[in-house]
Specification:
This protein is an all-beta fold. 0% of the residues lie in helices and 42% in strands.
């Protein structure tokens, strides 16, 4: 599918989350403290609830609906374990963050 513009680079800083949309899909960009920006599908695997209204503390993202907790560095489920968020490749192109979405 190629690279798709996601958001302006200046909207994101370490320890912050930015809700985005790309080709109609909800994406959440997290920049965990001590890490690098990561882009995840913003739908909780529990009940498909949007994570764009979740609570981000710089290390974990908590689903506002049912309290599921995800590691911002990997998307791995911490509570409960055995689940995770789908991650997408991102890159900086000039002043924009771009995302590479699956072709599915």
């Amino acid at each position: 599918m190629g690279w798709t513009p996601l958001c302006k680079k200046r909207l994101l800083s370490p320890g912050e989350a930015v809700p985005c949309r790309a080709d109609g899909q909800e994406i959440i960009v997290l920049w965990p403290e001590g890490g690098r920006p990561r882009a995840f599908d913003a739908r909780c695997p529990h009940e498909d609830v949007s994570l764009n209204k979740g609570i981000f503390n710089g290390q974990t993202l908590i689903c506002a609906a049912h309290g599921w907790v995800f590691d911002a560095h990997s998307g791995e489920g911490l509570s409960p374990t055995g689940c995770g968020l789908d991650e997408f490749p991102i890159r900086v192109n000039g002043e924009m963050l771009e995302i590479e979405l699956d072709e599915d």
